[in-house]
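Protein entry
_____________
===
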Amino acid sequence: MSDTTSLLSLFLSSFLAATLLPGGSEAVLIGVLNGYPETLWFALLLATVGNTLGGLTSFGMGWLLPQTQQLKHVEKLRRYGTPALLLAWAPLIGDALCLAAGWLRLNPWQAALFMALGKFARYWVIAMVIV
């Protein structure tokens, strides 16, 4: 597999992993960095962008849900606001946070920023462990 194909696979897996679909992109990142260590920063950028776009897809799905009764747990997110999306990378709760943030109509630009920061930090830690 070429570095271009590997990086494309990383982008796609990081996007899909951040949607409501099951999957993980960490193994793909490790594989790319083991095979092509010179792509470190570009791989981190692609993984972060893909994962953030996937999170924003969940955010957008939440935005499209009708506003009905307020849910107690979702309202807690309103109190913490978009900085809570630093945890959008976390397994199980990350997708729910993105969906709930969209449903609450939190600021999409701030949501994208905090998602990207948290997701980059996670990928960076993984990369530093294996490099």
Q: What stands out?
A: The mean pLDDT is 91. The two ends are 20 Å apart (CA to CA). The helical segments are 3-17, 26-35, 40-64, 72-80, 93-103, 108-130. DSSP finds six helices and no strands in the chain.
